[in-house]
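for the recovery benchmark. tokens below, seq after
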């Protein structure tokens, strides 16, 4: 990835340009990473080399196997990041000497016993147990990154709940540990056409990616915002702080984006709400009129009026939520009147 004045560009894919923060919003929200990680987990479970002893050769085969397993995802940056993260874990563990391995393995086993998401049988003796160990570390890096992302985005967008602020504070304390954030490799590039040097960054950790992005947020023209669609609440980046809704799929209408669909949905809802309110008003004026004409029935009519006042707001909500039809609501209002016999007596 290269970074240039608030924009990240995927190396080799110059059309993949994202303002700072946007890649995080795209990668860390929705189902992309869940499905990538699930696929990775399945591939490890069914790895044909899983019972082979761990050697220089088998580990290289396993690495190729993992690379191929991760080839099938629609969002390339997420796939590249997942691949890089997993391969980094593999390389990190391969490079350790046997003394370090012993101490580390005990810690890893303890940790895997505490978390149901992690694989239990991790070791360095077979390809399968080694891949499971790498997966556990891949997953922990991912979970840390997600916690940081949600906390940071919530705080930066000014929409953090109490729990989000607390989780953010907690991970912020941990970030002081230099071993926690895998390093980012910087490479120089030379452009023969312009004769200029540039830099690209090799990021092979979800957490490092989150830290990299947030560290550039201050000099970016975009801001992290949170979708104001109450059923969505996804984070997104925008140039204008007046942006209210995200460019991701709307929960109310799959296939349409929040920023396109939700305002329209709200307007329609408002029109419908106004219409229902008008029906309620008509029903009340009918009752007020009746009371004025027939003061002797005042007590009964007052009861009817308070029936409308108490129950109608709830009924209107039901219609807006689609649980009650508009016609049924109208019928309900019409039925709130004095008995026919009382009226005939007059
Ligand atoms: Zn949204």
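predicted aa per position
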């Amino acid at each position: 990835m290269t970074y240039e004045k608030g924009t990240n560009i995927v190396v080799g894919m110059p059309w993949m340009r994202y303002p700072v923060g946007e890649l995080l919003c795209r990668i860390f929200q929705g189902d992309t990473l869940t499905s990538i990680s699930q696929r990775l987990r399945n591939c490890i479970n069914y790895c044909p080399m899983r019972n082979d002893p761990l050697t220089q050769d088998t580990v290289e085969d396993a690495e190729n196997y993992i690379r191929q397993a991760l080839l099938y995802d629609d969002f390339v940056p997420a796939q590249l990041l997942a691949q890089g993260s997993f391969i980094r874990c593999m390389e990190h563990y391969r490079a350790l000497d046997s003394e370090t391995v012993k101490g580390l393995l005990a810690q890893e086993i303890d940790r895997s016993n505490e978390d149901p998401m992690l694989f239990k049988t991790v070791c360095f003796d077979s390809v399968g147990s080694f891949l499971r160990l790498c997966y556990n570390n891949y997953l922990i890096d991912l979970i840390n990154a997600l916690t940081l992302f949600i906390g940071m985005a919530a705080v930066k967008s000014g929409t953090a709940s109490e729990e989000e602020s607390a989780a953010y504070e907690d991970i912020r304390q941990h970030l002081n540990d230099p071993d926690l954030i895998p390093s980012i490799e910087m490479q120089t590039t030379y452009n023969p056409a312009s004769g200029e040097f540039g830099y690209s960054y090799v990021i092979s950790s979800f957490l490092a990616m989150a830290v990299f992005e947030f560290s550039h947020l201050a000099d970016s023209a975009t801001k992290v915002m949170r979708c104001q669609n109450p059923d969505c609440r996804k984070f997104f980046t925008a140039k204008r702080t007046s942006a209210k809704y995200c460019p991701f799929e709307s929960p109310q209408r799959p296939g349409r984006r929040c920023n396109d669909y939700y305002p329209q949905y709200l307007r329609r809802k408002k029109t419908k709400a106004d219409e229902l309110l008008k029906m309620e008003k008509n029903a009340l004026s009918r009752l007020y009129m009746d009371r004025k004409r027939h003061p002797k029935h005042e007590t009964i009519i007052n009861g009817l009026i308070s029936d409308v006042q108490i129950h109608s707001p709830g009924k209107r909500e039901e219609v807006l939520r689609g649980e009650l039809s508009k016609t049924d609501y109208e019928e309900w209002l019409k039925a709130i009147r004095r008995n026919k016999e009382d009226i005939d007596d007059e």
